Amino acid sequence: MGDRPIIRVQHVVKAFGKVTAVNDVTFDVWAGEIFAFLGPNGAGKTTTIKMLTTLLRPTTGSLELDGLDPATDQTEVRKRFGVVFQDPSLDSDLTAWENMDIHGVLYHVPRQTRRERSETLLRMFELWERRDDLVKTFSGGMKRRLEIARGLLHTPKVLFLDEPTLGLDPQSRNQMWTHVRNLNQAERVTVFLTTHYMDEADRVADRIAVIDHGRIVAMGSSGELKQHTGTDSLEAAFLALTGTTIRDESATAADQLRQVSRVWRR
Amino acid sequence: MSVVYILWLREVKKYLRSRVQIVASLGSPLMYLGVLGFGLGPVFQRAGEGKYLQFMAPGVIGMTVLFTAMFSGIAMLWDRQFGFLKETLVAPVPRLLIMIGRTLGGATVAVLQGTLIFVVTLIAGFRPVSLLAVPLAFLVIGLIAVIFSALATAIGSSLKEMQGFQMVMNFLVMPTFFLSGAIYPLEGLPRVLGALTRVDPLTYGVDGVRGLLTGRTHFGVAVDVAVLLGVGVVFVVFGAWRFSKIEA
Question: A85, A89, A95: which to substitute to probe chain B, counting the most B Cβ within 10 Å?
Fold first, then answer.
């Protein structure tokens, strides 16, 4: 763990009309740690990530990333993080290498560095042999790995992973977390992830914030959460904290699109 | 500059790789050219207007450019949720550069597609009056492409759901095509229809291309180009503004 917060969120509220997606959330993330947001769909995890990644502005409250405000200092903040969204953001009609290369140009990574780092990262995520294949021929796990590799190309200080294992089979999920752990060690990058799988938060995160209905209901290491609630598994702790198990929320427009895309693509 | 270039290159590369799509998108222009061109040809000739193919070929080229450009904008809706667009929205570069790269790429693809149809019309028997005018005609085609790519970007940035797609096709793209004078002469139209054709930017595009390729023009090529430039500036500014407002 580092000695200063790289992310500082204070009393943040985000309302969409009458719906309050994030309701007075306060937390710090320390440089170098793996921090997990654990909660059901619709709890406010993605909204928080969108605010930190400059895509949304908070209704009230303040956010800081590396001492900068994502709402007002967009360009500088964007240089400092990499992000893997819940939905794919690769260009599947281009090759893995081309996807990396475009990212490098967008982030003004000098050509030589771009090439060297692309190679290092593609090797690290076991995609080097497939670098000249079109992304649409990749499996779900490979696509996710490529997205993470791409997000790291400009050596960000923070890597956001929004539900990175959604839709992956257990083996790919396992492999994914091994990769995340390794890169956290090798690159000294702070990882901010969201998940609704409790076993994953338990296994990979240094600290976990349990979020439900837009509020943080508990925060600490997996051990602390269990101790705090007097339970022996994170699942039981979650139940004790929220009074519910992970549940499904009503579908939004994006969920419906997502549904269509799954039917079309598989 | 490198940002604009790489995004432009991306669109062009994707186009050149999608052979099936290229062939598939030739379908409707070919249908118009074949069925209307040869079906209405005899009537057109009897009315003393000359060869219909000669008249409508520029219209079909304009239509191809319109359709291709508009589709690239609709694809953006998809791209925003499940594609590459989101990657560009969090990149540390001004949205304006991203919009320009995308729009120029979309416009280039539309011009390439228009070129293909131009070749097809030549094979079908279309004859430009002067070869020297062909490059000039392509400048006008380029203007049409930029106008509708920018409009498509504006629409793609504003729509929230796929259902909007059908609406855009029915209430914007098809009327733009049918009101453009692509398939009928603008002379002697009923007043309302005549007025509608004059607010359709494609009308000036088709008229300009037709003027340069066949010598037959309603407004005069200079007027056409002036209108297209004016509309182009407005649409690009509008598209850039809408694009800057996207919240992912």
Answer: A89
